[in-house]
Design a protein that fits this description.
By secondary structure, the protein is of the alpha/beta class.
């Protein structure tokens, strides 16, 4: 039984009162987005004991072996193979969206989502912005980044002079229940469609919005506050050119931490420089 009250660090503190699991999930998502990777235990730990055996490394979005996170849904191996085949057969964004709508290999589509949320913006633009997952507003309208976060993103892209050069999509196409982040397994099974989107648009640069998008496409474990503002090379599985990718802070994070808007603005200015012809 918990409720949240304000404090000076994160604006939230847990106290024993009425239950609110969504508030708990929002707090944990905020900590993860901010790069928090550990917390203190309730009891002392004997550091003289041998360290535990390391856990298997995390697979990234472009891995060829699926994660064991889709066990409750379709067979992950068959689902990934089907996604690759459907993506390969798509010849443009319209047929790619139809392929996603016909794809039943991701459990997200059967967990309460109303429709596929594919993309919006300029399909011939030189920037491809990839976020994490649709939210409630996106699920209602069938378009990515149309809620408060999306409105802030649009204003920032316009201020940087790159709005008309941008196509916007996500790493997954159905809204996760409870507005949670997508899992690596959910991202992985849809990764062929994300990659085909990149190959069809052929952007000059990719803007990765939020920690899950950056970690998924780049295979990085660092938090978004460490990754943002740095250029990385995205190669993908299928033949094609390597594309520069720039991680940045998610607008939802900026709405909670307005002081960080300066960092995101610096990222967008760096991105806009890529559109200046040499």
């Amino acid at each position: 039984m918990y409720r949240f009250i304000s404090d000076d660090l994160t604006g939230t503190v847990l106290t024993a009162t009425a239950p609110d699991p969504r508030a708990l999930e929002a707090l944990f998502s905020f900590w993860a987005e901010a790069g928090v990777e550990m917390c203190y235990a309730d009891s002392p730990v004997d550091r003289t004991l041998p360290p535990p055996r390391p856990t298997p490394p995390k697979l990234n979005l472009v891995a060829t072996t699926p994660l064991p996170g889709l066990q409750a849904g379709p067979d992950p191996v068959l689902a990934l193979a089907e996604a690759r085949q459907r993506a390969a057969e798509a010849t443009d964004l319209e047929s790619l969206k139809s392929a996603i709508e016909a794809f039943r290999g991701c459990p997200l589509r059967d967990l309460g989502a109303r429709q596929v949320v594919f993309g919006r913006g300029n399909p011939k633009g030189r920037i491809l912005a990839i976020g994490e997952a649709p939210g409630v507003d996106e699920d209602l309208q069938g378009l990515p980044f149309v809620g408060r976060s999306g409105q802030l993103l649009d204003r920032m892209l316009k201020a940087a002079g790159i709005f008309d050069e941008t196509f916007i999509t996500n790493t997954v196409y159905w809204s996760p229940p409870g507005n949670r982040q997508p899992t690596q397994a959910e991202q992985l099974v849809l990764s062929p469609f994300v990659e085909k989107t990149i190959r069809l648009i052929q952007p000059r640069a990719i803007l990765l919005i939020g920690g899950m998008a950056a970690k998924g496409l780049l295979g990085k474990d660092e938090g978004i506050l460490k990754l943002r503002g740095q250029w990385f090379d995205w190669a993908g599985e299928t033949p094609g050119p390597t594309i520069k990718a720039l991680p940045t802070l998610h607008p939802a994070f900026l709405l909670r931490q307005s002081a960080s808007k300066k960092l995101a603005w610096e990222d967008l200015l760096k991105l806009s420089e890529t559109l200046i012809d040499p």
